[in-house]
Design a protein that fits this description.
Layout: E1 19-20, E2 37-40, H1 51-57, E3 60-65, H2 69-74, E4 88-91, H3 102-113, H4 116-130, H5 132-144, E5 149-153, H6 160-172, H7 176-189, H8 191-203, H9 210-217, H10 222-236, H11 238-246, H12 251-262
Parallel strand pairs: 2-5, 3-4, 3-5
Antiparallel strand pairs: 1-2
Helix pairs in contact: 3-4, 3-9, 4-10, 5-12, 6-7, 6-11, 6-12, 7-10, 8-9, 10-11
């Protein structure tokens, strides 16, 4: 197993791409909280018995699962997350059943696999549109539960998770370049996972393009996130505009959310 830089990565046996989104400088010279929000790939592969106690030691109270039900069904009978005392899993899908038709899935695969920024921006715009209820729930957590640590994940912890994390960091005032660097860490976090899932991706219905498409689909290049942040500014007026106008938070609530991302809060 390759040694990942720590921080931000934390080795949780069986879970890929697990890291904190803290310690990023903001426009107000604050730092995002290092022990409040974590991101990862799917934890259904967490190694027993050593993995769960590590999640507990991080004081994680809630795990937000952004996967759709068909994704979860594909790994059954393995549970989405084994029962862990003190930790609640929340089914919080970005894509509903209507967005998981074979046609919609094939369209997303083509966007990711195409390479370059255009495909990723198209796919991430789809996430921003479909993910409003899921993202609102997690921003509500930040607003109302600043002392309750949470983990957010999808399958790889790259795209749906990456878009949400980019919104959080951008709202906190982290510079675009730093947000893109944080996103790019996913390539380190997924090195082993990409090897493991290559054959599965190639067998997916609607997936075309062979190994080059796999490389494109599993990449996390900084320019793709920079282009996405520019799209968010043009389409929504930035992360703040998205959270206010698309998710329905007030200016006062947004100010509170921003403080909770960068300031320590006691449980």
């Amino acid at each position: 197993m390759p040694t990942l830089p720590s921080p931000p990565f934390i080795e949780v046996p069986g879970i890929h791409n697990f890291r904190s989104i803290g310690a990023h400088s903001t426009s107000t010279s604050s730092l995002t909280r290092a022990t409040y929000i974590y991101r990862s790939g799917s934890p259904h592969t967490i190694a027993l018995p050593h993995g769960p106690p590590l999640l507990q030691s991080l004081r994680i109270s809630t795990v937000y699962d952004l996967r759709s039900q068909p994704e979860i069904d594909r790994v059954l009978p393995v549970p989405p997350l084994p029962p862990i005392p003190g930790i609640t899993r929340v089914f919080n899908p970005v894509f509903d059943e209507a967005n998981n038709s074979p046609e919609r899935l094939a369209g997303r695969y083509r966007a990711y696999a195409a390479g370059g920024t255009v495909g990723f921006v198209t796919a991430y715009a789809d996430i921003l549109d479909a993910g409003k209820p899921a993202f609102a729930r997690m921003f509500r957590h930040i607003l109302e539960r600043p002392g309750e640590v949470f983990l957010v994940h999808c399958t790889a912890g790259k795209d749906r998770t990456g878009v949400f994390v980019a919104l959080v960091l951008s709202l906190a005032g982290v510079a675009d370049e730093r947000v893109a660097e944080e996103y790019g860490l996913t390539e380190l976090g997924l090195e082993e996972w990409v090897v493991e899932v290559r054959e599965r991706l190639l067998r997916l219905e609607g997936f075309e393009g062979g190994d080059e498409a796999v490389r494109n689909m599993t990449s996390a290049h900084g320019p793709n996130m920079l282009a996405t942040l520019e799209m968010i500014r043009e389409r929504y007026g930035g992360a703040e505009g998205y959270v206010r106008n698309e998710l329905g938070f007030t200016e006062e609530e947004i100010d509170t959310i921003r403080r909770h991302i960068v300031e320590d809060a006691e449980p």
